[in-house]
Specification:
Elements lengths: L2 E5 L2 E3 L5 E8 L8 E6 L6 E6 L6 E3 L7 E6 L4 E6 L8 E9 L1 E4 L3 E5 L2
Parallel strand pairs: 2-11
Antiparallel strand pairs: 1-3, 3-8, 4-5, 4-9, 5-6, 7-8, 9-10, 9-11
């Protein structure tokens, strides 16, 4: 079955960086568009970034352009989210997502930006 397992979250100071990973299994990863979403406290889940199956096309939420970078490794079946210049408002649970007839989600990884 489809499995998405996020890792790499944690506590980081404002201005710091984190790299999230999402290990995928149970489907043809190299053919799938992958996405990162996040849900902050008291907020709705929002789309952070999207990457095409080959990694040749990426899209970002306008507010995050220049700070976040999505990438993927189709050999290791993993998608990454490199986050830099982190702000307290980036505090959220970050989720990996793909859609194969239905949406699949990982369990999420908590990112807390605080001094």
């Amino acid at each position: 079955q489809v499995q998405l397992v996020e890792s790499g979250g944690g506590l980081v100071q404002p201005g710091g960086s984190l790299r999230l990973s999402c290990a995928a299994s149970g489907f043809a990863f190299s053919s799938a568009t992958m996405r990162w979403y996040r849900q902050g406290p008291g907020k709705e889940r929002e789309l952070v970034a999207t990457i095409s199956s080959t990694g040749g096309r990426t899209n970002y939420a306008d507010s995050l352009k220049g700070r976040f970078t999505i990438s993927r490794d189709n050999v290791q079946n993993t998608v990454f989210l490199q986050m830099s210049s982190l702000k307290p408002e980036d505090t959220a649970v970050y989720y990996c997502n793909t859609v194969i007839y239905v949406a699949y989600w990982g369990q999420g990884t908590q990112v807390t930006v605080s001094s």
